[in-house]
Amino acid sequence: MAKRDYYEVLGVSRGAAADELKKAYRRLAMKNHPDRNPDDTAAEARFKEIKEAYEVLSDERRRATYDQFGHEGLDASMGRGGGPGAGASGDAFADIFGDVFGDIFGGGRRGGRNGVYRGADLRYELAIDLEKAVFGDTVELRIPAEEDCSRCEGTGAEPGTKPVTCPTCNGAGQVRMQQGFFSVQQTCPTCRGTGRIIKDPCTACSGRGRVRRDKTLSVKVPPGVDTGDRIRLSGEGEAGRNGGPPGDLYVDIAVKPHAIFSREGADLHCEVPVAFTTAALGGSVEVPTLDGSVTLKIPPETQSGRAFRMRGKGVRPVRGGPQGDLYCRVTVETPVNLTGEQKELLQQFDDALHHGGAKHNPRSRSWMDGVKRFFESIGG
Q: The whole model's pTM is what?
């Protein structure tokens, strides 16, 4: 099937300038793009035809070949690196494709020859007390970040002057080197890809166009956060370049160790020292919680290590769900710094326990029986 004339495909005259070609291509490509015409094979075919026409006509060398020899001339040059997508036309198509469809379909590049870049995201680790993590708080943060220089308005040039087009790449930001049949595209060494050079740098930013300043932000910490949770502050990162959008600030939560409580998800844990007489006879002790002290009843004959659960005294998770519990682990405390009289009374108490046999210390007797069986088994 014979190909249509490229100028006819784009709907322009043979003398059309580059801007006219670009405008025609944008209009037709947007109209016929497959994303806008799902399951339409005719539109997909037209889009490919439009793309091929623009690739050729946007390249001065290939356009001259086409004007003189037509499609046959282009086909003959295919073996010499002149096919569709090769050389400058491929780059031109990539640029225009990004311009046309970047905003429409969520793609495109974040930066390019126009130097527009999104600002960098920032990360801040916020260490907070357990109480603030459980109940929430508002915290003031001082964040170092880069922003556009106010003196030169981000241009990098001294006020009254402006950057000039790079003479090496003519503002393209890239240079092309020919090596036989191949051409290699590289970042311009003079302007480092920006397409501009600054002859008179701004004295405030030394030509960078950006300065480093601290800013103070008020961050609301929601109740129930835990170590590893992250708060995102949209648009509070570094400023974008040349009108680009700012980045985001991510605040990573780290909960400090607590003197009394440890946390496991929504539950809290603590150790409660209890006098051995209270553990033996029963009684009550005052136990702290995050919203006030409560009384914990200790039943008689409580052993060290036993845990008591206090429902609803834990943490309400930040993402919802039932409030956790508080687990109080009893630690029976051995008395210290005894007087002679106290030691004598304890000895009398111990003698009385021995007269009662194993019934007063069942776990100790059971353990000793196990030890005896162990030695008998290894003794043969």
A: 0.55
